[in-house]
From TrEMBL, chain A:
One of its GO terms (molecular function) is histidine phosphotransfer kinase activity. The modification Phosphohistidine is found at residue 79. Histidine-containing phosphotransfer domain (HPt) contains an active histidine that mediates the phosphotransfer. This is Histidine-containing phosphotransfer protein. The lineage of its organism: Eukaryota, Viridiplantae, Streptophyta, Embryophyta, Tracheophyta. The gene is LOC107894790. One of its GO terms (cellular component) is cytosol. Functions as a two-component phosphorelay mediators between cytokinin sensor histidine kinases and response regulators (B-type ARRs). Plays an important role in propagating cytokinin signal transduction. It comes from the Eukaryota. It comes from Gossypium hirsutum (Upland cotton). Keywords: Acetylation, Cytokinin signaling pathway, Cytoplasm, Nucleus, Phosphoprotein, Two-component regulatory system. Pfam families: Hpt.
From TrEMBL, chain B:
Residues 313-579 form the Histidine kinase domain. It comes from Gossypium tomentosum. Residues 869-989 form the Response regulatory domain. This is histidine kinase. Keywords: Phosphoprotein.
Length: 149, 992
């Protein structure tokens, strides 16, 4: 594919992510921290986010299957998830976490289950989106181009 | 009583112990509200028994927790009661039990729908006799209320004047209540009461009849007595709430020595009984209402408090969303093609968003004040500049409507005060709000702003008078809030400060005014006076906020009564500021020293007018009556001879008058051969740089100054008359003058300049309205007494301390710049806004944020944190990478650890090696040791070394109070942002 076309595609894609609220300015902040000394910074941080989130989501699912649900622990886990999602600017996940925490505080099992489902869904989306974005970036780099800001 | 009934019924049917709690409050209400009542009991057939009674000074309760049906077991407990709440405290004690159910009063009351009154013994230790009124609750229980007999007899014995007679009271069944008649006793036999008089030599019985009162005459030892028996119905407390079905009969026996006085004795007793009843009735109602009202008030206060807190809580989110919108608009703006429609729309959107933010801020301010979270941010500023700045902001707004906004310097005390310390932003907010209201609601005339320094003795008076109000306000504001206390302390500290000065402000308009009856309510939130508000928009929050802010600054705001027939409203408020530096006479300092020698008024530095015409003559020709009055008053207070011309056709004649006067004087003493211009320029251009006035007096050529010829200054408002006409008059006047120096200041509108600068004399100046404040001072400095700077206004302004000078006054040649004055000055204000962020809270904040954003972008190269050692304690891997990278990119040397323990150890190592961290970024929630604990330990440890490392908290919460309490210096929200980090570090550095 033409390099310019790729670059345009990336810009459009990224804009759409912001536009649809998948990402917020924190992601911009993250990108601004990436420089020559640290060329893979964003990818590194985002992969950490994936690791973190998957671990937390698994723990949460397990916690909800238990006979006696430890809501306090769950609340702490959702809090962590919220923290890491806000750190990379995963806006929708972060928003859901706020709702999730309210359900945890209210000890509402139904709400928690529903929320967990939604968080998983949103997480899946943002993961795919980010991965395809990184792929696109990689393609551009491979083609010898630079990532448009 | 209805309440008691209802609750009582609710309690019937169950015998749980907790039922006491249902009955108790109603009983307690009754015992505290019904006068004279000393005992109240609820006896339920189901076995519940609960009673309050007063024994001496203490309220006690007696209750039985077992059912009456199992009588053998039933035990009575006695327990003391809190007089305020009715709650029981202490250990219950088993007490003597009464078999209540078997008593006749209980049975009678239970089986009749009306109440029953009887004389019984109370529960208290002495078993004091009571008038007991009992009433049945639908046959399932009985409420009994007792009034002590002693209460009645005390009053009868002590208060009522029997006019030499005596009184005894006895019940129908022969129980003696009061025996006032000496040597008598009562005998009860066969349902009749006999009064027995006893002499040493015998006795005599008189029957007391139920039906007909009888009078007996007695002759004892030569004295004649009238004895009369009559029945008295004491219906007791019962009659207060229930119809008088049953009466409790008592015989009253009077013995009086003369017939005439007998009648007096009867009336008071009747009166006593009836007045007791009505009083009791009224008092119960009042007590009951008061209690309900208090409850409602407390509830309302709680609700309002919660609402305020919720609003503050929501503030962050709303602000964030709005900031997001403005941010994105800015982003779009950057991409928009310049000059396109798109750009215009975006700009409009941006303006709307700003407005919205302003509105939001005003609402949030209110909630913040209400929640007691508003604090004063003190800084040093020039008060005179601030006032002028605010007034000037509203001057153009007023000019459009034809309303002149005038700044009245009053006694000049503000100018002398110069530098003060206080919350500049809030003062601007207060002034702007009142002023904008005044301008908004004034259709014609003027708005006058006055400010002066309060007299010290007056100050204490105000202090004393407002302290009460303030305290009241504070306590209601911060009721139940701990952090409010510090604010109160802060405020009182402001007041107690010895350097604190009281500044009084008045904003006086000629608008429609506020009706007297509404004057109080304008300070309430959400209130707008409807009659005057037609077509005006606003939240109605303004004055409420203003009042709170004024009180926060230790002052009070109110509306000053105007003379009858005067239009408009006059708001007056006072605030307390710290006088930072009293510059004796900053404005006229230089001339003061020189002038003092001439006029010997060193104290004020402001001269008194000299009798001869060697001073200056100022001619004021202005359209607005108020501005004319204010300017004249101020100039005259400085000892300047002022001629005021109010109408254009008086102008030429006034000038002629001066001319002839001048010429005659000059002709008589023609010794001044030099032109004033050269004289003044030589003296002033060399020796009078304003900025260095203090040290120049010795250089002044006194001898020459003596000969300074009189100087005429014309201040002409061009709006009064067509420019060409005025110019013609002035030109004619000039021709008539000989050597006298004459200077003309043309006052022009900033919005629509109508002066043709080409026609002006090179000496003349154009000054833009409004003619007050620094502009007025600049003009005063033109006068010889005040250090004439013949170089003109422009040069004086260059050398002036005043920041306004440079744009305010321009030489006539630079006409283009005059045209651009409005925009340039506005620009300047906005610049000022960003450098002093409190000037306009919203704008300032946004501006500074934006500035920092730019700063962060450009700092990629320069790295503001270079050479700084930063420790980052954060347990989340991802967040730590983020924080480390952020700090590293800013040039810092970063170390990382994963919990509070490690952080503490690292800091200790650093302290020992004398290689301290410059900053610590501390996550608050870490395991095993959290950030708060780590901070506390670090603070203790580092104290031994005499250092204090700034610790910045990283939290996911919006408020950093906990962090501050733990001893951290600042607080940042996660995730860490570059610009916020820089901002915080900058603020810490400036603090140090």
């Amino acid at each position: 594919m033409d390099l310019i076309q790729l670059q345009r595609q990336l810009v459009d894609y990224r804009t759409s992510l912001y536009h649809e609220g998948f990402l917020d300015e924190q992601f911009t902040q993250l990108q601004s921290l990436q420089d020559e000394n640290n060329p893979d910074f964003v990818v590194e941080v985002v992969s950490l986010f994936f690791e973190d989130s998957e671990r937390l989501l698994n723990e949460l699912s397990k916690a909800l299957e238990q006979q006696i649900i430890d809501f306090k622990r769950m609340d702490a886990q959702v809090h962590q998830l919220k923290g890491s999602s806000s750190s990379i600017g995963a806006h929708r996940v972060q928003k859901l976490c706020i709702v999730f925490r309210n359900y945890c505080e209210a000890h509402n099992v139904e709400g928690c289950l529903k929320c967990l489902q939604q968080v998983k869904h949103e997480y899946g989306i943002i993961k795919t989106k980010l991965e395809s974005m990184f792929q696109l970036e990689q393609q551009i780099l491979n083609a010898g181009g630079s990532i448009p800001v | 009583m209805n309440k008691a009934t209802n609750v009582g019924i609710a309690g019937v049917g169950t015998t749980k112990y907790s039922d006491h709690m249902v009955v108790a409050p109603s009983l307690f209400l009754a015992v505290t509200t019904i006068p004279y009542l000393s005992q109240i009991s609820y006896v339920g057939l189901e076995g519940l028994f609960f009673s309050y009674y007063i024994d001496g000074n203490q309220t006690l309760s007696t209750y039985a927790n077992s059912s009456f049906s199992s009588r053998k077991k039933h035990v009575w407990y006695k327990q003391p009661v809190d007089n305020q709440t009715g709650k029981l405290y202490g250990e219950p004690v088993t007490s003597h039990s009464f078999n209540v159910v078997n008593t006749s009063w209980f049975q009678v009351a239970l089986n009749h729908s009306w109440g029953y009154s009887s004389l019984e013994n109370g529960w208290n230790n002495g078993g004091e006799p009571l008038f007991l009124t009992s009433v049945s609750l639908l046959g399932k229980g009985v409420i009994a209320m007792g009034v002590p007999v002693k209460r009645l007899t005390d009053r009868l014995g002590g208060i009522i004047n029997l006019y030499g007679g005596s009184l005894s009271l006895v019940t129908m069944d022969g129980k003696l209540l009061l025996n006032g008649i000496p040597n008598t006793k009562f005998i009860y036999a066969n349902g009749t009461i006999f009064l027995q008089f006893m002499w040493p030599n015998g006795f005599k019985n008189f029957p007391c009849s139920n039906d007909t009162p009888e009078t007996y005459k007695l002759d004892i030892d030569g004295k004649e007595y009238n004895v009369r028996c009559s029945t008295v119905e004491i219906s007791g407390v019962q009659s207060v709430c229930y119809p008088n079905y049953s009466f409790f009969l008592v015989f009253a026996v009077f013995a009086a020595s003369s017939i005439n006085e007998f009648w007096f004795s009867v009336i008071p007793l009747v009166f006593f009984v009836s007045s007791m009843i009505t009083n009791a009735q009224r008092e119960i109602c009042l007590h009951d209402k008061l209690i309900k009202q208090m409850e409602a008030t407390q509830q309302a206060e709680r609700k309002s408090m919660n609402k305020s807190l919720a609003l503050v809580g929501a503030s962050h989110d709303i602000r964030a969303a709005l900031a997001g919108i403005t941010g994105f608009i800015d982003l779009c703006l950057a991409n928009a093609a310049p000059g396109s429609d798109f750009e215009t729309y975006l700009k409009q959107m941006s303006l709307c968003a700003q407005d919205l933010l302003g509105l939001l801020n005003s609402i949030l301010d209110t909630s913040k004040i209400e929640a007691g979270m508003m604090n004063l941010e003190e800084q040093e500023f020039n008060l005179a500049d601030l006032i002028e700045h605010v007034v000037d902001l509203y001057h153009p707004v007023g000019m459009i409507k034809g309303v002149d906004v005038v700044l009245d310097p009053c006694d000049g005390s503000i100018i002398k005060l110069s530098q003060v310390k206080g919350d500049r932003g809030k003062l601007v907010q207060i002034l702007s709000n009142i002023l904008s209201n005044a301008v908004k609601y004034t259709v014609e005339g003027h708005v006058c702003v006055r400010a002066w320094v309060g007299k010290p003795d007056f100050e204490t008076k105000i202090l004393a008078s407002t302290r009460k109000g303030l305290g009241k306000y504070m306590s209601s504001l911060f009721s139940g809030k701990n952090d409010g206390n510090s604010d109160i302390k802060a405020v009182s500290a402001v007041r107690q400060n010895r350097d604190s000065v009281e500044i009084v402000f008045e904003v006086d308009d000629t608008g429609k005014g506020i009706p007297k009856e509404k004057q109080k309510s304008v300070f309430e939130n959400y209130v707008q006076v409807k009659e005057t508000a037609a077509g005006q928009v606003g939240t109605g929050l303004g004055l409420g906020i203003v009042q709170s802010l004024v009180r926060l600054m230790g002052g009070e705001i109110g509306i000053v009564d105007k003379e009858f027939g005067e239009k408009g409203t006059c708001f007056r408020f006072n605030v307390f500021l710290t006088a930072f530096e009293i510059q004796g006479d900053a404005m006229y300092g230089g001339t003061n020293s020189s002038f003092a020698i001439r006029n010997c008024s060193p104290k004020l530095g402001i001269c008194t007018p000299s009798p001869k015409l060697d001073g200056s003559q100022v001619v004021l020709f202005m359209q607005n009556i108020e501005r004319r009055r204010v300017s004249q008053k101020f100039l005259e207070s400085l000892g300047i001879s002022v001629l005021v011309v109010d109408h254009c056709h008086h102008f030429p004649s006034a000038l002629k008058k001066i001319q002839s006067k001048l010429n005659s004087l000059l002709n008589s003493s023609r010794r001044s051969d030099m032109s004033c211009r050269s004289d003044i320029s030589s003296s002033s251009s060399k020796e009078m740089p304003l900025s260095a006035m203090e040290g120049t007096e010795h250089k002044l050529p006194f001898n020459r100054r003596k000969d300074t010829p009189s100087f005429i200054l014309l201040v002409i408002d061009v709006n009064a008359e067509s420019f060409s006409e005025l110019w013609r008059v002035v030109a004619e006047f000039r021709r008539g003058l000989h050597s006298t120096c004459c200077k003309v200041i043309w006052l022009d509108k900033p919005t629509s300049p109508c002066i043709d600068p080409k026609r002006l004399n090179p000496d003349d100046e154009i000054l833009l309205q409004p003619f007050h404040g620094s502009r007025l001072h600049r003009v005063i400095k033109l006068l010889s007494e005040f250090g004439n700077l013949s170089q003109g206004l422009s040069s004086s302004s260059e050398s002036s301390k005043h920041p306004y000078g440079k744009t305010r006054l321009r030489h006539t040649q630079c006409n283009d710049e005059i045209q651009g004055y409005v925009s340039s000055s506005n620009e300047r204000y906005s610049k000022q806004g960003s450098s002093s962020p409190t000037l306009e809270p919203t704008r300032g904040r946004l501006k500074s944020k934006r500035k920092n954003k730019d700063g962060a972008e450009s700092s990629n190269g320069e790295k503001p944190l270079i050479g700084k050692r930063i420790l980052i304690a954060e347990d989340n891997k991802m967040l730590s990478i983020l924080a480390i990278t952020t700090a590293t990119q800013l040039g810092a040397d970063v170390e990382h650890c994963e919990n509070g323990n490690e952080a503490f150890e690292l800091v200790c190592d650093g302290l020992k090696a004398q290689r301290n961290y410059d900053y610590i970024l501390m996550d608050c929630e870490m395991l095993p040791m959290n950030g708060y604990e780590a901070t506390r330990r670090i603070r203790i440890e580092e104290e031994r070394y005499g250092v204090r490392i700034p610790i910045i908290a990283l939290t996911a919460h919006t408020s950093g109070t906990e962090a501050m309490e733990a001893g951290m210096d600042a607080h940042l929200n996660k995730p860490l942002k570059t610009n916020e980090l820089i901002e915080v570090i900058e603020s810490i550095e400036t603090k140090e």
